[in-house]
Specification:
Blueprint lengths: L6 E10 L2 E11 L4 E5 L6 H9 L6 E6 L2 E2 L5 H6 L2 E3 L12 H7 L9 H6 L2 H20 L15 H14 L4 E5 L7 H16 L3 E5 L3 H7 L2 E6 L2 E6 L1 H5 L2 H8 L1 H6 L1
Parallel strand pairs: 3-8, 3-9, 6-7, 7-8
Antiparallel strand pairs: 1-2, 1-4, 4-5, 9-10
Helix pairs in contact: 3-5, 3-6, 5-6
């Protein structure tokens, strides 16, 4: 890669008591690429995402965002610097509408002061209309446009997952971290979501996604990283990973490999 990595992990580790959840993980991620993080349950995938996004600390190693050391940054500062994520269980404001949830994601980029909001100034009203238009575009982009005014908590699980992605995109991230975003989606919805990620990557974003849907991973990812017992055991193109004996033994299984 000619461009510097947007995210660099160097020998990152985290233990919970005697259990090494993540051990010696080194990884460089670059813009305009989709990375899939796969592995068996308990491999440390979500723990690694939590470390990257600042929701838990690391015990060892270093993390750099565009070359800048961010080990001690809280999650909020990482979001301000272009990192956004979704969770295994959607973290939404359930009593707010889908539209309002996405508008919350714009808070980093709103120009108007609290005083102008309280006074109802015309400039804020204009900005609010602009934000609503942008929020609707994001809802349409992820396939939730028809539910803009529905309370988020009443949406089906699959729509909640997509709504959470729309809210993450509202922060205008350069690095998007997704934890099992295809859970609850139908086959056509999953394919559509894959095309969305490819579009975002094509526009310059870096995407790191944890996903158990192997057809989705093999179709969408530029590079696959395999984690087992907290360690990276393989990384490469989808075709290389599908045929890697270590990966087959640790995760894919002979039957799935034969079916592929």
């Amino acid at each position: 890669m000619s461009n510097p990595a947007i995210l660099s992990l160097t020998d990152v580790g985290r233990s919970f008591g005697a259990i090494k959840a993540v051990s010696g993980v080194s990884l460089d991620l670059f813009e305009r690429r989709i990375y899939a993080l796969i592995g068996p349950n308990g491999a440390g995938k979500t723990t690694l995402l939590n470390i990257i996004s600042g929701y838990i600390g690391r015990d060892s190693g270093n993390i750099r965002l565009r070359g800048q050391l961010i080990d001690d940054w809280p999650a909020s500062r990482r979001v301000h610097q272009g990192m956004a994520r979704s969770f295994q269980i959607a973290q939404l404001f359930s009593h707010m509408t889908a539209m309002e949830n996405v508008m919350c994601g714009f808070h980093l980029h709103v120009d108007q002061s609290l005083l102008s909001v309280l006074l109802g100034l015309r400039s804020f009203a204009a900005e609010e209309r602009s934000l609503r238009d942008r929020a609707r575009q994001l809802l349409e982009m992820v396939g939730v446009g028809d539910y803009a005014e529905e309370p988020a908590g009443l949406l089906p699980f699959g729509l909640q997952r997509r709504l959470e992605v729309a809210r993450a995109l509202a922060t205008q991230p350069s690095l998007l971290l997704l934890d099992e975003p295809c859970a609850g989606l139908s086959g056509p919805e999953t394919a559509e979501f894959g095309r969305l990620l490819q579009r975002l990557a094509g526009e310059g974003m870096c995407v790191l996604v944890i996903e158990h849907d192997m057809p989705f991973v093999l179709e969408v990812a530029d590079e696959v990283v395999v984690l087992d017992a907290g360690e990276i055991i393989a990384r490469g193109t989808p075709d290389a990973i599908r045929n890697d004996p270590c990966v087959i033994e640790a995760y894919l299984g002979e039957l799935e490999h034969g079916a592929a």
